[in-house]
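Dear Dr. H.,

I hope your travels went smoothly. While you were away I took the liberty of generating a structure for the chain from your last submission, since the lab meeting agenda had it listed for discussion. I wanted you to have the full record in hand beforehand rather than looking at slides cold. The sequence, exactly as received, is reproduced here:
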Amino acid sequence: MAKMDREKSLLDLLFSIEGLFILIILAFRLGFIREVPLQLSPDEAYYWDWSRQLAWGYYSKPPMVAWLIAASTGFLGVSEYAVRLPAVLCGIGFLLFVYLLGYRMFGRLPARWALFAAALIPIFTVFGLLMTIDPPLLFFWSGALYFGWRAVEEDRLRHWLLLGLFCGLGLLTKQTMLAFGFFFGLWLLFYRRELVRSSGPWLTFTVALFLWAPNLYWIAEHDFITFRHTEHHFEEETLSLLGPLRFLLEQAGVLSPPLFGLFLWTTYMLFRRRDWRAEPRLTYLWALSAWPYLAVLPLSFLRKVNANWPMPFFVAGLVLSAGVIFSLRKNLRARALRGLFFAGLLLALFGTALLYQLPRFPEKFPRPVAGLLFRFYGWREMAAVVQKYRRPGEPILTNHRYLASELAFYLPDHPRVYQLPEGPIPATQYHLWGIPENLEGRPVLFVIKGCKRPFRETEFLFCRKVKLPGNRYLVFSGWRGSWN
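The corresponding predicted structure, in token form, is as follows:
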């Protein structure tokens, strides 16, 4: 697998097929989030509410998602489009880094097909449209992959500095970024130990820690609430011997079965072939894809692993698969592998095309498929009912963070909505913020999930049921009473 010319400027990229493709994806996604009437999911509304009180940390996540939403809504105003715009921009940045990494390592042809696959894989498409913590994580993770390779390849301080910058910003996005540092460090110890004794990796570590330090201080000030929230993801559950198989099948389903299968084949070949393991570029991508996947597998014996948790690991795996397959000498095996890659690409395209059509025409899809959208409907209708019964300036208390965040976003004045306490330990960011003392004894509007009376001395106002896709319902009720 001979190396090709690796130098390519961003200006060259703009005037190429790949650059045109990225611009088309950008335009299409911008049009989609503006034109498709998809209400904010509860997580998107929750993070938007965070963005109105900027801090160095929040109950369950670092602050980056709130900062990005605050920047966008501060410039464009409060709207669904403004909340989701950072996801689109992060998604395009992610595609750019995938291409640049593939080009630098393997040349134009493998990089092109890695780019096409990254743009069309369904789960990557979702996180190029919806503003959760995953779009910025993918952007910073792919940027760290690129600058990490530049740093070890050229050993220049500016690249180590940029690697530290992307790692630090990634740590301000999601704790998963710790896995990048861990497996990158392992790769250095196994394959480039001489670099560990140089100043570059320590500069990266210092910069990343410096950027992450304010968030760590915030976490410590709040009794390590973020770490304690994360712990419950790793609590032991019932042992399932089929857990790893279920995990791998789900990964194949959200990524494209042929493409994920090719990644597994490439991983297996690296185990078998010593000459491939002598290639630093292959082992670098291998260490940042296959190794973390192997680390997650034992967890799948004990609990269900959410599909998005190991998603960043597939970024290096995709570049690795495309790099190997499209760099092989042309023979029968190479043609078969490329054919399988193209089949995976077509399947991903089909899945993504359906994904784009689903919110446009949910009634044309089977009920279980249409039901996947239930979190994106009903909130505007709920806010309209609440607004009808709410007195001017009346405080609102609710028993669920979903209702609190969606009412805050969809009520015309975007009020501060409070969540009722559930016990001595905070369960959401609303519990950390608390309920102001000046509300005691004042009449408030209680908006409750379900129709059960929240307190004995409350006056019933309404109970509503809003039909959602997939034959689901959003049930909520309103009550008036004093808070004490």
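Two observations you may find useful: The chain has a mean pLDDT of 92. The radius of gyration is 24 Å.

With kind regards,
E. W.
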